[in-house]
Design a protein that fits this description.
Helix content is 70%, strand content 7%. It is mainly alpha-helical and 518 residues long. Strand 4 and strand 5 form a beta hairpin. Helix 2 crosses helix 8, helix 4 runs parallel beside helix 6 and helix 11 crosses helix 12.
Length: 518
C-alpha cells in the first residue's frame, strides 16, 4: 500500500494547487471585467450627465426667451393701452374745450337775448301806456257821440258779443258733431272689419233627416218586425219617423227635433250592430242612448264654455248651451253662431276699452233662450233673460240677451256690442243658407237689373251673387259712360235689393276687329 500512497498524495496536492491557481486566474479575470464595466458605467454616466446638462441649458434658454417674449408682449400691450388712454384724454380735452367755447357763445347769446328782452319789455310798457291813453280818449269820444255812460255801453257791447259768440258756438258745435259722426262711423267700421277679419268661422247647414247604413236589405224586415211592431216601438220610444223605402242599404230617420233625431240614429245603429231587435230591446237601447245624449250635450256645452273662456257658469246654462248644438236658425247652427258672436263681441269690447271677458259672456249667452223656447211662452230674448236672471248672471248679460234684437239700452254698451256682433255673424256671406229657389231668384234679379241699363249687352252674376260682370257695347258707350253705368248699377242694387255683405260690379268694354286673310 505504501508505494501507492505517495503518488496519490502528490497527485492530490498537485490538483489542489492547480485548482487554486485556476481560481486565482478566474478572480483576476473577473476583476478586470468588473473594472472595465465600471469604467464603461462611469463613462456613460458622464455622457448622460453632460447631455442632461445641455438639455437643461437649452430649456433654460428657451424659458428665458419665452419669458422675454411674453414680457415684450405685455409691454407692447401696456404701451397700446397707454396710447389709447392718451388719445381718449386728448379727445376729452378737445370736447371740453369745445363745450367751453359753446358755453361762452351761449352765454353771449343769452346776454344778447336778455338785453333784447329788456328793450322789448320797455317798449311794450311804453306802448301799453300809449294804448291806455288812446283807449281812454276813444272811450270819452264814444260816450260823447253815443250819449251812453260806461255801464250802458258795456252792457250793450256784452250783449252783442254774447249773440255773436252763441252763433259761432253753434256753428262750431255742428261742425264738431259732423266730424265726430264721421270719425265714429269710420272707427266703428274699422273695429267691425278688424273683428270679423280676426275671427272667421264656417257654418255647416243642418237638415231634417239622417241616414243610417244597413248591411243588407234583410235588415229592413227585421227593423220593421212582425206586423210592424218593431218600427212602431222604435218610433214611439224616440219620437221620430223611420222611412224605409226601396233605396238599397239605407234607412232614413226623419224629425225636426235634432236631439231626438240624433239619439234615434245612434240607437238604430246600436240595434243593427247588436242584431237583437224587439220592443223590449228597443226601449232599453233608446233609454241608454238618451242618457248618453244628455252626457254628450253637457260635454258640448262645457267645451263651448272653455273655448270662449267663460267661467263660473251654472250647470243648467251649460246644458242649455250644449242643446244649442242641435238648434239651427235659418240653417245656421246656433251654438257656433253664439261662439262666433262671443268672440266678435270680445274683440270689439277690447278695441274700445271695455271688458272683453264680460262681452264674450254676453255674446255666448245672448241666444240661450232658443234652447228652451219650446218650454216657455214668448220670444227667445225674453226667455233667455228670465233664465239668466234665474241663474244669477250679471245685469249686463241679462240686458244683452233681452235687447240684442231691439229695445237697446244705451246705458249698457254691451247690449249694443252684442247686437252688432250678432248682425255681423248672421249677415256675413256663407253664414246662412238660402233655398235653391231664392238663390236662383236673387241671381236673376241681379242680372235683370243690370241688363235694364242702356248699352248693356250681357250680365253674369258670379261668386254666389257677390260679384256681377257686365259687358257693354263699345258702339253705344264710351269709357266715361261705362263708368257711369257701373256706378248706376251699384246704386240700383243698393236701392232695390236687400243683401248681406257687398256686391262688386265690374263693367267690361272692349273693341274687336276681325279680318280674314285669303
Amino acid at each position: 500500500m505504501e508505494p501507492y500512497v505517495i503518488p496519490i498524495a502528490i497527485t492530490l496536492v498537485a490538483s489542489v494547487m492547480l485548482t487554486f491557481v485556476a481560481i486565482k486566474g478566474l478572480d483576476h479575470l473577473r476583476r478586470k471585467d468588473a473594472e472595465s464595466e465600471a469604467r464603461q458605467i462611469v463613462e456613460r454616466a458622464e455622457q448622460d450627465a453632460h447631455a442632461r446638462r445641455r438639455e437643461v441649458e437649452l430649456e433654460l434658454k428657451e424659458m428665458v426667451i419665452q419669458q422675454k417674449a411674453e414680457g415684450e408682449k405685455e409691454l407692447r400691450k401696456l404701451r397700446q393701452e397707454l396710447h389709447e388712454r392718451e388719445r381718449m384724454l386728448d379727445k376729452r380735452q378737445d370736447a371740453l374745450e369745445k363745450q367751453a367755447d359753446q358755453l361762452q357763445k351761449q352765454e353771449k347769446i343769452v346776454e344778447g337775448t336778455q338785453r333784447k328782452l329788456t328793450e322789448r319789455i320797455q317798449d311794450t310798457n311804453r306802448r301799453k301806456e300809449e294804448l291806455a291813453k288812446l283807449l281812454d280818449l276813444q272811450r270819452q269820444t264814444l260816450h260823447e257821440l253815443s250819449g251812453l255812460n260806461r255801464d250802458e255801453a258795456t252792457a250793450r257791447l256784452l250783449e252783442t258779443l254774447r249773440t255773436e259768440l252763441s252763433r259761432e258756438v253753434g256753428a262750431v258745435i255742428l261742425k264738431h258733431e259732423r266730424q265726430m259722426n264721421e270719425v265714429c262711423e269710420e272707427k266703428s267700421r274699422e273695429i267691425l272689419l278688424t273683428a270679423i277679419q280676426r275671427f272667421a268661422a264656417a257654418h255647416t247647414a243642418e237638415t231634417t233627416t239622417s241616414t243610417v247604413d244597413i248591411p243588407n236589405d234583410e235588415m229592413k224586415g227585421r227593423i220593421i218586425g212582425r206586423e210592424g211592431r218593431n218600427i212602431r216601438a222604435f218610433e214611439k220610444a224616440t219620437g221620430v219617423d223611420v222611412i224605409i223605402d226601396d233605396t238599397p242599404g239605407v234607412v232614413i230617420v226623419s224629425g225636426f227635433d235634432m236631439i231626438r233625431r240624433e239619439a234615434a240614429r245612434i240607437a238604430l245603429n246600436k240595434l243593427i250592430a247588436d242584431g237583437r231587435i224587439h220592443p223590449s230591446r228597443i226601449e232599453e237601447i233608446v233609454a241608454e242612448t238618451t242618457r248618453e245624449m244628455e252626457r254628450y250635450i253637457q260635454r258640448v256645452g262645457e267645451e263651448a264654455r272653455q273655448e270662449v273662456d267663460v267661467h263660473s257658469l251654472h250647470e243648467r246654462l251649460v246644458n242649455l248651451l250644449g242643446r244649442l248644438q242641435f238648434r239651427t236658425s235659418y240653417s245656421q247652427n246656433v251654438l257656433r253662431h253664439s261662439i262666433e258672436v262671443a268672440f266678435l263681441a270680445g274683440m270689439i269690447a277690447d278695441e274700445i276699452g271695455l271688458d272683453g271677458r264680460l262681452a264674450r259672456r254676453c255674446g255666448l249667452l245672448h241666444d240661450i233662450g232658443k234652447a228652451a223656447d219650446h218650454e216657455a211662452e214668448g220670444g227667445h230674448p225674453k226667455i233667455g233673460a228670465d233664465l239668466l236672471k234665474r241663474y244669477g248672471e250679471p245685469p249686463e248679460v241679462i240686458q244683452a240677451a233681452a235687447g240684442h234684437h231691439d229695445d237697446l239700452h244705451l246705458d249698457n254698451p254691451y247690449t249694443v256690442i252684442v247686437s252688432a256682433a250678432d248682425a255681423c255673424s248672421a249677415s256675413r256671406p256663407g253664414a246662412r243658407r238660402e233655398t235653391l229657389e231664392r238663390y236662383v231668384k236673387r241671381m236673376e234679379e241681379l242680372e235683370s237689373i243690370a241688363s235694364s241699363f242702356h248699352g248693356v249687352d250681357q250680365a253674369y252674376a258670379i261668386q254666389a251673387g257677390r260679384e256681377l260682370r257686365v259687358l257693354v257695347s263699345s258702339k253705344e258707350t264710351t269709357d266715361e259712360s261705362a263708368a257711369k253705368v257701373c256706378r248706376e248699377i251699384a246704386k240700383a242694387f243698393e236701392e232695390r235689393l236687400t243683401f248681406p255683405g257687398e256686391i262688386k260690379v265690374t263693367v267690361l268694354r272692349e273693341t274687336r276687329h276681325t279680318e280674314v286673310a285669303r
